[in-house]
Write a structure and sequence with these properties.
By secondary structure, the chain is of the alpha/beta class. The protein folds into four domains: 80 residues, no CATH class; 46 residues, no CATH class; 236 residues, 3-Layer(aba) Sandwich (Rossmann fold), CATH 3.40.50.300; 82 residues, no CATH class. The protein has 14 helices and 19 strands. The strands form six sheets. It has a four-stranded mixed sheet with strand order 3-2-1-4, with helices on one face. Strands 6-7-8-9 form a four-stranded antiparallel sheet. A four-stranded parallel sheet has the order 12-15-11-16. The protein starts with a helix and ends in a 9-residue tail after the last strand.
Length: 478
């Protein structure tokens, strides 16, 4: 049996992935499919080919042993290539600029090639795509598409609509960073609907919305098997999840011990678009707030509510034009991107530059998107400051004294005198100078947005903290 399986497997082209995993490009009719060797999809292909030759029962243990032999062969002789998930970077065209590919996910293995100013349907993309279980198909995009059709399915203001378009088009590119999209609003404001619409337009899946992961391993496995992660109806973010989302937004590595193995690690590095939705703004830590985009959904009057059946029937009918409109926006953004220079470079500057390129390609005036994005970040920072008793204390200190310099131990005493709120959360108030310094470092980016500079000094007499007004801060538009 093993020899028969190895002979069948010889039809596949073995690949040594850049991610450290091993893949096989297997024939399916006149096209090829890419599967990870350890995946259930490769096991099913092997089993199906085995049965087509008239053989009978195939035991899972035998498949595992054959896969082990194939991995050893791939490690030595497999071609070093990337196996992409949903979106991939490919060859350069005559302009010397990169061409991106979007896997439609249908049986024909077709993809969309997206370049500066244009996109086209291709039968055989020049990159390898893998399709984990649950992977679903996108509609064939229409040439008469329009991004503005999306307004029918989104309960957001006109001022925030360009932010959503920028995020969706960024999620169709294989290069990040990707701000974590936070959908905020009361019950019944269509947060889950918007998250589902975004998932269906970018990376449809059998389980489009998911609950909060229970561990770092679950978050890592989810990112390994999904291009876009949408977490629904969250009430809070534990610290480990906040840190993990930061890594996914800007790119980072995860490591976990392999199952049933005491001294081997499984490594995974990725950037992924992520959607969170909840009644309140979920990020509380400054590092995640800095990597986030917030859309506030207003209440929907009862007279404007739609039946689910009607809404999704209309969406399915519009989906080809919606996707075509997004692809037009991506192509337009790629055309203008090399010419875009930002007057100000905030955190996530690459996303800000991309959003400005897309906005200008859609006919908006230069600087319009950047102003909206800076205002979004400013308002989020103010919310974070209001939520932090230490940050509120520092702002009160600056309002009264103008500036202050001294050790953390003295600052802790001073802030306790300034903040006399009997309802303050005692658990979040620092109990030691070291704890205070840690909270100040986390709050420093948001405090800068509010015009307060916190500097940590190292001197012979010891460490000191300087707090002062930022004279260069420009007040955000109201």
């Amino acid at each position: 049996m093993a020899q028969t399986l190895l002979r069948i497997a010889s039809r596949a082209r073995l690949l040594r992935g850049i991610d450290g995993r091993f893949y096989a490009s297997v024939p399916e009719g006149d096209r090829a499919e890419c599967h990870e060797l350890r995946s259930s999809r490769f096991g099913r292909w092997l089993t199906r080919a085995y049965r087509q030759e008239g053989n009978q029962i195939l035991y899972p243990d035998l498949i595992r042993r054959v896969v082990g032999l194939l991995e050893a062969e791939a490690e030595q002789a497999g071609a070093l290539e990337t196996a992409y998930l949903r979106v991939g970077g490919g060859d350069t065209g005559s302009t010397g600029r990169s061409t991106y590919y979007l896997d439609l996910g249908d049986r024909s293995r077709r993809a969309i090639a997206i370049g500066p100013g244009c996109w086209r349907l291709v039968d055989r993309p020049s990159v390898h795509f893998r399709r984990p279980d649950g992977f679903a198909a996108l509609p064939t995009p229409s040439r008469d598409g329009s991004v503005d059709l999306l307004r029918k399915y989104t309960n957001i203001t006109d001022a925030e609509f360009p932010l959503l378009v920028a995020w969706l088009t960024a999620a169709l590119r294989p290069v990040g960073p990707y701000p974590v999209l936070n959908l905020v609003g009361e019950q019944g404001s269509a947060k889950s609907t918007l998250a589902r619409v975004a998932r269906l337009l970018i990376d449809p899946h059998a389980s489009p919305l998911r609950a909060e992961p229970e561990s770092r391993r679950d978050l890592m496995v989810g990112a390994l098997n999904n291009w876009l992660l949408a977490f629904d109806n969250l009430s809070a973010l534990p610290s480990w999840l906040s840190d993990g989302l930061c890594r996914l937004a800007t790119g980072g590595a995860f490591a976990a011990r392999k199952l049933y193995d005491d001294d081997q690690e499984h490594h995974f590095s990725a950037q992924r678009p992520v959607i969170l939705n909840g009644i309140s703004e979920l990020p509380r830590r400054g590092d995640l707030i800095d990597r986030s985009l917030f859309l506030n959904l207003p209440p929907i009057p009862n007279s404007q509510r739609q039946y689910e059946e009607d809404l999704w029937a209309a969406f399915q009918a519009d989906a080809p034009r919606l996707l075509g409109g997004l692809l037009d926006a991506v192509a337009g953004g790629l055309r203008l991107l090399p010419e875009i220079q930002l007057a100000s470079r905030p955190r996530m500057a690459d996303f800000a530059r991309w959003g400005e390129a897309v906005a200008q390609a859609r006919g908006q005036a230069p600087g319009t998107f950047l102003q909206a994005y800076l205002l979004n970040r400013c308002l989020a920072s103010m919310t974070a400051v209001d939520d932090s008793p230490v940050a509120r204390g520092v702002i009160e200190l600056v309002a009264r004294l103008g500036s202050w310099t001294g050790p953390a131990s003295e600052l802790l005493v001073l802030l306790r005198e300034l903040i006399r709120d009997p309802l303050a959360d005692a658990k979040r108030w620092p109990k030691s100078p070291i704890w205070l310094s840690e909270q100040l470092r986390r709050a420093a980016p948001q405090l800068r947005t509010c015009g307060v500079i916190v500097t940590f000094l190292r001197r012979r007499a010891g460490r000191e903290i300087r707090i002062e007004r930022d004279k260069l801060t420009v007040t955000a538009p109201s």
